[in-house]
Every structure is written in structure tokens, then in C-alpha cells.
Design a protein that fits this description.
The structure holds two protein chains of two kinds.
Chain A lengths: L11 E4 L26 E5 L7 H16 L3 E3 L18 H5 L5 E9 L5 E9 L4 E10 L4 H17 L8 E8 L6 E8 L6 E2 L7 E6 L5 E6 L6 E6 L5 E3 L7 E6 L5 E7 L5 E7 L5 E3 L7 E6 L5 E6 L6 E6 L6 E2 L6 E7 L5 E8 L2 E8 L6 E6 L2 E6 L5 E8 L2 E8 L5 E4 L4 E7 L5
Parallel strand pairs in A: 2-3, 2-4
Antiparallel strand pairs in A: 1-6, 4-5, 5-6, 7-8, 7-30, 8-9, 10-11, 11-12, 12-13, 14-15, 15-16, 16-17, 18-19, 19-20, 20-21, 22-23, 23-24, 24-25, 26-27, 27-28, 28-29
Helix pairs in contact in A: 1-3
Chain B lengths: L1 H6 L3 H15 L24 H9 L1 E3 L9 H16 L3 E8 L6 H21 L7 E7 L10 H7 L1 E8 L3
Parallel strand pairs in B: 2-3
Antiparallel strand pairs in B: 1-4, 2-4
Classes of the chains: A mainly beta, B alpha+beta.
């Protein structure tokens, strides 16, 4: 089992036997359809996990917060609960939950093992069908308490929506502090809900645009530490850094290929224009993908690695283009009224997220990969830089207001916008794949 | 308001006021204008000094939105810079390109680079040796003016000619 951090190796899951013998129907209680009008969030009761002193309540709280923020669930206030769960392994009194309109019920327990690990288990009940829908248990060390809760939230989300969750993930971003004309920028990493912030650079040089490797262990980013702005690789755990390529000019706007073997980025030409190159991290060979007397930047691979979407102002103002991963067939796909930049291909492959400037506003939107079906999800005075949750259902971006940038997430309906809590200003979020 | 109206009749005064306004917003870390260098105005600088360049020649030019074309007023400034740089050849030169915040981060890095290159190319066309010139883009990461409107954005869309190497 691969892991993101060494201590996480101890997370192990196993299915819990069904308390009800009826075979589980494979339908989802929540339908995900971005084109539908109002998605009615599913009323769900999440009881405090039994045992573990405060830990049981804390796990329940994290699961509740994750599900609530997704916009697909409406956790019911605990004060409305009628049945007090004393044995989380026994079938609950379904009528007590139906009467408060809890369509789904979560029970669980947490305990300390003799070896110091935590054992957490949950059961998900369909109150109207009167049966268990899912049940699993996990072992983890103390440092991973929050991860256990996120993994349980992912399991519930997946069982009830039919889609993978995105709660057991991290975000790398730029922590910003100080006055606007003397901003200190630091690389930082945190859980997707804003917990467990850790700094990866000291703030002495400007750092920008961190992006996750598909293996979750590395990030690529841009730094001014050598004087000349360049793209670097950073091993998150060891702190080991290296320059990506040895080019004469500025390198910027890096992203990994989906197999993690390449970094694609912009390289400044001597004439002041920027072209897109891909560098193979093992052979160190570089391939030029564009060769225009224009700004070509913000490249992002399709999840199958066969195509690249990027920004170019070759047509006058910045627009979105798609090309083959070898640079072939460069085609403009954005034709709306405005300036388009920072395209990012969805991990599902179906959509491209972008930043659009029009009418004095900055918008975050999505379009199909041929440029059709543009939908604006969020508009504001200054906001940019979308990144996809690994399930392709939620975007995170940064919005500058009240003196500095903060992180915000929005789902594909555009109706569920959520602030991501950070203690300082924050920009350039990049969402990790699901942890392992 | 009356005072501003009076000033607008005198172009020289406008230039001075604009320069002081910019100086007031500048980062203290990069002394590239009169206020940062502890000077109160033109005339105090030794000819051939960095202060002389900043105060009497003008170290920066400004650009239109999303453009790297050298405007007529910028051409005048750059021509003056070139003349001075050709006289005082002991300096190495770094041209910084900057963008306002009304663009995305990566695009603005590219735009700043293009502005720096345009200013550099103009200086070269006026006889400054290209071997003395380097460029760097800061995109929108180093604004000198920090308000949220046009008056600030126009000051941030700039190329700044900075002197290094041997100096007095």
C-alpha cells in the first residue's frame, strides 16, 4: 500500500459484516446532476462515535463537516435525535430516525488497541429501507485521527452518491502574509478542510504556482530563490529540491503529466515571448510543443496524457487552445466574449475549468473539451486559478477581497460556494489526488 | 481640488507630483526611486549616480492594459535612459517587467517578461550594449501601488530599469 506520509502506512480498512441479511441494493440515495435545478441535500443523521473519550465526537464532527460542505447532504442537528445510540453495531430503531426525516444514519465507534493504534468503525443505515448500507473499520495511529474521519466521509459519500469522494486529500498553496507591496509568500500544505497546515518554504523568496504530482509525494512550483525565476521539484517529505532543466531564461507555469514522468511548463524566449516545453524527468530530454511569437502558457494535460490545453494570446488576447501532447493540431476552443486563461483539464476528462475576464469581473467557469457548453460557476472582482477535486465535481480557486486572497471551493452546480479556512491569506491552491 | 486644477496647468509639476506619488508607494526593499534613497527631489543627486538616474532621468516606463508596446511618453524616457547609460558605462542593467493585478498569475509573468524585453530592445536600439542588459519578470507579484482601482493599476504596469555592478 503506497502512502502519502510514512505514519499513514498503518491505515487499514476492512468491511464490517452486515447487520441485516437482506442483500444491499446498488442504488444511490443522492443523484449527482449538475444540469438539474436545485439539488435537494439528503437529510442525514451522524451520531457521535462511541468511545475514545472526545475522539468519538471529533470524528463525527469531521465527517459531518465534510458531508455538509459538499452541498449534497444536510446533516441533522443532534438535538433533534430521539434514539440515543448505545450499541453502534446493533440495528437502530429506524422509526425514531424516520420521524426526524433522516434518510440515512451513521453510527460508529472508536477505541484504542493494545498496540496504541486507533480502531474506528462506522455503519451507514438506510432508515426507510430499514437496513445497513455499508460498514467498515479502520486502524490508524494517533497522527491520522483526522484522516480516518475523512476516509469514513469518503466512504459514505461514495455509497450514497455512486461517485468517489474527495475528503481524504490535501491542498498545496501559497500562504501570503504582510502588506500587499511587500507580501511574504510561502509554500504550504494542508488537509482539504484547512486543518494540519505545514510550511514547505521559509518565505525568503517569492514562490508561486505549486502543483501536485500524481504520486502525491512531490510538487512542482516556481521560485525566485536563484534570482532568476525558475521551476523546481520538491519532495514533500524529505524537503529535497531540484531545478527542473537548465534553461537560459525564466521557466514558469509547471504541471505534471498524468503519469508523473514529465513536467510541462513555459519557457521564456529571448524575444520576450513564452513557449511551452515538456521535460522528461528521467531522461532530462525536453520537447518543444509550441513555437509562436506569442504568450503560450498555463499548459495542463488531459488525464489520459494525449492532449494539452493551454493559454495563448496568439490571436490577439488570451484564449484557450488544445493541442496533441506532441504539439500537433493546435486549435482554439474558447470563443466567448472575454479573456480566458489558466485552463485545467478535469481528472474525469470531460471538462476544462478556466478563469475568464469579462466586464471588469473575473469568473471561474467550465467548458467541454471542444469549447462548447461554457458555464460560469462563480463571478467576482478578482479571482482566478481553479484546481479540481480528484472526483471532478468540485473546484477550488482563490479570490482577492478585503486586502488579500483567500481560498474558496465551488461545486459544478455553482450553487455551493464554501470558504476554505486559512489563518493567513492564501492563493494558488492545487488539490491532491485521493491519498492512499 | 482647486490645487490639483492649478497643477494641471503645469506639465512639469504634474510629472513631479506623479513621481512623488509613485515613490510614496514603493517597496522599501528595492530602492529605485528618490524617496527610497532618502532624497527629497531632483538636483540633490551626484551626476552619474544611481540617484541621478532615478531622479533626473526616470527609472520606469508605463504600459497600457495587457500591452507591451512602448508608448510615446515611454520612448522619451527610454531615450533619456539610453543616453545616460551610454555616458555611464560602468553599470550593468536589469530591466524588471511588471503587470497590474488585472490578469492571472501565470499570464502576467509572461506579460511582465514581454514588457521587460520590449524596454530592453528599445535601449539596445538606442545603442546600449545588449551584454549589459538582463531582464526579469515579476508578473503581478511586486505592485508598487496597492489600491484596487485604475490609478494604481496604471502605476503597476511598468518596466523599471535598475542599475547594478560598479556604481558610485
Amino acid at each position: 500500500m503506497r502512502s502519502f506520509l510514512k505514519p499513514l502506512l498503518t491505515i487499514a480498512a476492512m468491511a464490517l459484516g452486515m447487520a441485516a441479511v437482506v442483500p444491499m441494493p446498488a442504488w444511490a440515495l443522492v443523484e449527482l446532476n449538475v444540469n438539474k435545478g436545485n439539488v435537494e441535500p439528503l437529510p442525514i443523521a451522524i451520531t457521535d462515535f462511541q468511545g475514545g473519550d472526545a475522539l468519538g465526537a471529533q470524528i463525527s464532527q469531521i465527517v459531518t463537516a465534510d458531508l455538509k460542505r459538499s452541498g449534497l447532504f444536510a446533516p441533522i442537528d443532534k438535538s433533534a435525535f430521539i434514539e440515543k445510540i448505545t450499541n453502534p453495531d446493533a440495528a437502530p430503531r429506524f422509526d425514531d430516525w424516520k420521524v426526524i426525516n433522516a434518510q440515512a444514519l451513521v453510527t460508529g465507534s472508536v477505541s484504542k488497541e493494545a498496540d496504541g493504534r486507533i480502531r474506528a468503525q462506522y455503519r451507514l443505515w438506510d432508515t426507510f429501507a430499514g437496513q445497513q448500507m455499508a460498514g467498515e473499520q479502520f486502524f490508524a495511529n494517533d497522527a491520522n485521527q483526522r484522516r480516518v474521519a475523512h476516509i469514513i466521509a469518503d466512504a459514505i459519500y461514495e455509497r450514497l452518491t455512486g461517485e468517489k469522494g474527495y475528503f481524504d486529500t490535501r491542498v498545496v498553496f501559497i500562504d501570503e502574509s504582510g502588506a500587499k507591496n511587500a507580501r511574504k509568500k510561502r509554500l504550504a500544505i494542508m488537509d482539504q478542510d484547512g486543518a494540519n497546515v505545514r510550511y514547505l518554504s521559509d518565505g525568503r523568496s517569492i514562490v508561486l504556482t505549486p502543483r501536485f504530482s500524481p504520486n502525491r509525494q512531490e510538487i512542482t512550483y516556481m521560485s525566485y530563490e536563484s534570482g532568476q525565476p525558475r521551476v523546481y521539484l520538491l519532495q514533500i517529505e524529505t524537503g529535497q529540491r531540484e531545478l527542473v532543466g537548465n534553461f537560459p531564461g525564466m521557466t514558469f507555469a509547471p504541471r505534471f503529466s498524468p503519469d508523473g514522468q514529465k513536467v510541462i511548463m513555459s519557457l521564456l524566449r529571448d524575444d520576450g515571448n513564452s513557449n511551452i516545453f515538456a521535460m522528461d524527468l528521467r531522461s532530462r530530454s525536453t520537447t518543444r510543443l509550441t513555437n509562436s511569437t506569442a504568450i503560450d502558457t498555463s499548459p495542463s494535460y488531459s488525464p489520459d496524457g494525449s492532449k494539452v490545453v493551454f493559454t495563448s494570446d496568439r490571436g490577439g488576447r488570451a484564449q484557450i487552445y488544445v493541442m496533441g501532447a506532441d504539439g500537433s493540431g493546435q486549435t482554439r476552443i474558447s470563443f466567448g466574449d472575454g479573456v480566458y486563461s489558466t485552463p485545467v483539464w478535469s481528472p474525469r476528462g470531460d471538462l476544462i475549468a478556466f478563469t475568464k475576464q469579462t466586464g471588469g469581473e473575473f469568473q471561474i467557469g467550465v467548458m467541454k473539451t471542444d469549447g462548447s457548453g461554457e458555464r460560469i460557476l462563480s463571478s467576482g472582482f478578482q479571482q482566478e486559478g481553479p484546481t479540481w477535486a480528484p472526483n471532478g465535481r468540485v473546484l477550488m480557486f482563490f479570490r482577492d477581497s478585503n486586502g488579500g486572497p483567500k481560498l474558496v471551493s465551488v461545486d459544478l452546480t455553482g450553487r455551493n460556494e464554501q470558504p476554505i479556512p486559512t489563518s493567513n491569506f492564501a492563493s494558488d491552491p492545487a488539490w491532491s489526488p485521493l491519498l492512499e | 481640488m482647486g490645487r490639483i486644477a492649478a497643477l494641471t496647468r503645469n506639465p512639469v509639476m504634474i510629472a513631479l507630483v506623479a513621481m512623488l506619488a509613485i515613490a510614496g508607494c514603493a517597496s522599501k526593499k528595492t530602492p529605485n526611486n528618490a524617496a527610497d534613497l532618502g532624497l527629497n527631489g531632483a538636483g540633490a543627486a551626484t551626476p552619474g549616480s544611481a540617484q541621478d538616474f532615478t531622479v533626473n532621468i526616470g527609472d520606469r516606463i508605463f504600459f497600457d492594459t495587457d500591452s507591451s508596446s512602448i508608448r510615446a511618453d515611454a520612448q522619451t524616457t527610454l531615450a533619456r535612459q539610453a543616453q545616460w547609460l551610454n555616458q555611464y558605462k560602468q553599470y550593468a542593467i536589469v530591466v524588471e517587467g511588471h503587470a497590474d493585478e488585472r490578469g492571472t498569475r501565470e499570464y502576467n509573468l509572461a506579460l511582465g517578461a514581454r514588457r521587460a524585453a520590449a524596454a530592453r530592445d528599445f535601449l539596445v536600439s538606442k545603442g546600449v550594449a545588449s551584454s549589459r542588459l538582463k531582464t526579469i519578470s515579476y508578473g503581478k507579484e511586486r505592485p508598487v501601488a496597492v489600491c484596487d482601482d485604475i490609478s494604481c493599476w496604471s502605476q503597476n504596469r511598468r518596466a523599471v530599469t535598475t542599475l547594478s555592478g560598479a556604481g558610485s
